[in-house]
Amino acid sequence: MRTINHFVNGEAFAGTTGKTQPVLNPSTGTEQAQVVLADRADVDAVIAASAKAQPGWAAMNPQKRIRIIMEWIRLIHANMDELARTLSLEHGKTFDDARGDVLRGVDVLEFALGAPHQLKGEYSTEVGTGIDTYSLRQPLGVVAGITPFNFPAMIPLWKAGPALAAGNAFVLKPSERDPSVPVRLAELFIEAGAPAGVLNVVHGGKEAVDAILDSDTIKAVGFVGSTPIAQYIYARCAETGKRAQCFGGAKNHAIVLPDADIDATADALVGAAFGSAGERCMALSVVVPVGKETADKLREALVAKIPSLNVGHCLDPQADYGPLVTADARDRVFRLIGEGVEAGADLVVDGRELDMSGAEFEGESLAGGYYCGPTFFDNVTAEMSIYTEEIFGPVLAMVRAETLEEAISYPNDHVYGNGVAIFTQNGGAAREFVKNINVGMVGVNVPIPVPIAYHTFGGWKASGFGDLNQHGPDSFRFYTKTKTVTSRWPDDSQAGPQFTMPVMN
Ligand code: NAD
């Protein structure tokens, strides 16, 4: 059985606990590796290694740091198939979707190549007679990323790329469910010429996370995961004086106006609701058509498309999506579907009926995999748990609204505020929607509005805690601190001490 170790100082580190956890293949339900789990002492050792490496990395000029990141990008592309295959087999998303996971991470590394520009300060001359003021952006020191299972390449790279480019050392605590790709990415960073210790990876659960949160050496924590843990980490970081940006769960709505192209909208919804088995924080899980006619037409279009989706092994090129990540995740989705039925929602397509007992891929049985077929509910209401909770599975809920105002109230009033979309051909209505909607990322005829790397990514309300977003210019602000210098070079002797507040004139 393969063991996935921590990665510290450029090499594998088995840790001292002897504790491990199985890493599964969700497509077959079989164990494929064991990942080691750190305790507090292991984490402290990793942080100490990072602290030792950081000053030298920060002293390197930014052009040199980004040349290493440039080579890292080249190596990631050169190893793309291996990375995507490993990611797919541990997560369960399809191979092509896994490539997308890596590539959206690389986008942010490319953005981080602009670090010399992002780190430039500001300069004002003659703010007083013979006095200049300027500001510098300096790295924080050692920073950490705690990342979720659902994007095991993209989110570590979103965090590590800008942090490293800015001169920090980065401790990554990835999800213990799919830990291989984060380690492989760190190995490739060393191969690209990075000094050992600048990017370390440590595996573990709550104990490891708490050790990061308690460390005086760690100056900032970038977290992505579920809302209760996001809130916990945000509060703990406030207690210990660390910067934190903590992104949480989601319930993303699509509003469909009567003038929308129904067939194209149904296609967009099917991809965005069921892609990656719905295990995306930007998955569209609620659709709100305006008016009975729109809802009926949309229901008909969805019913024509959903049952023909192909669910299969993650490496099956015919599969539209693969399994959920664990049996627990699948059972939770099944439970919520049951609650929807009990609450009186209209279960139009029931994914629990998917039968994989006789299915095989390349000679392997899929009977033990964690599959759930695409599920579609109509007549969902705002009190039902299938509406209030993030399901994180292949379940689309339709909530019918009479008016645009009522439709907009659903995403506006929901506890989450990550993404939202509107489908319409009416520019004026879309513009009003964009202006007034209480959600962080908005799509206009775009179902999954994940912003490009040079803009920023972040949800509102219970989807995000902290004031700065991920990637884009915010990422450099988050991972640097500003020093402001006021200087004068007098060419005559001073008139003696001054006891009043200096005023620039
Ligand atoms: P999770 O909250 O279970 O785990 C996230 C990280 O926290 C992991 O590294 C995990 O090891 C750690 N962790 C788990 N339990 C902990 C505890 N009790 N104390 C301290 N640390 C703990 O999330 P997940 O299941 O890996 O990921 C799915 C969630 O992430 C969904 O809610 C999804 O919406 C969210 N997500 C949000 C975004 C975003 O940008 N808003 C992006 C991707 C995923």
Ligand roster: nicotinamide-adenine-dinucleotide
Biggest sheet descriptor: 7 strands, mixed
Please give the domain count.
2
CATH superfamily label of the largest domain:
Aldehyde Dehydrogenase, Chain A, domain 1
Sheet/helix structural class: alpha/beta
Record the strand order, biggest sheet. Answer: 15-18-19-14-13-21-22
Examine the coordinates and then state which fold CATH places here, giving the name of the CATH topology of the largest domain: Aldehyde Dehydrogenase, Chain A, domain 1
> How many beta-strand elements?
25
What is the CATH architecture assignment of the largest domain?
3-Layer(aba) Sandwich
Which geometry do the CA atoms define? globular
What oligomeric state do the depicted chains represent? single chain
Task: Please give the share of residues in helix.
Answer: 25-40%
CA-based gyration radius: 25 Å
Counting DSSP H or I runs of 4 or more residues, the number of helices is 16
Mean pLDDT across residues: 97
The level 1 CATH classification of the largest domain is Alpha Beta
Query: N-to-C terminal Cα separation, in Å?
Result: 73 Å
* Strand residues, percent: 15-25%
Enzyme class: oxidoreductase
Protein name: methylmalonate-semialdehyde dehydrogenase (CoA acylating)
EC number: 1.2.1.27
Pfam family, one: Aldedh
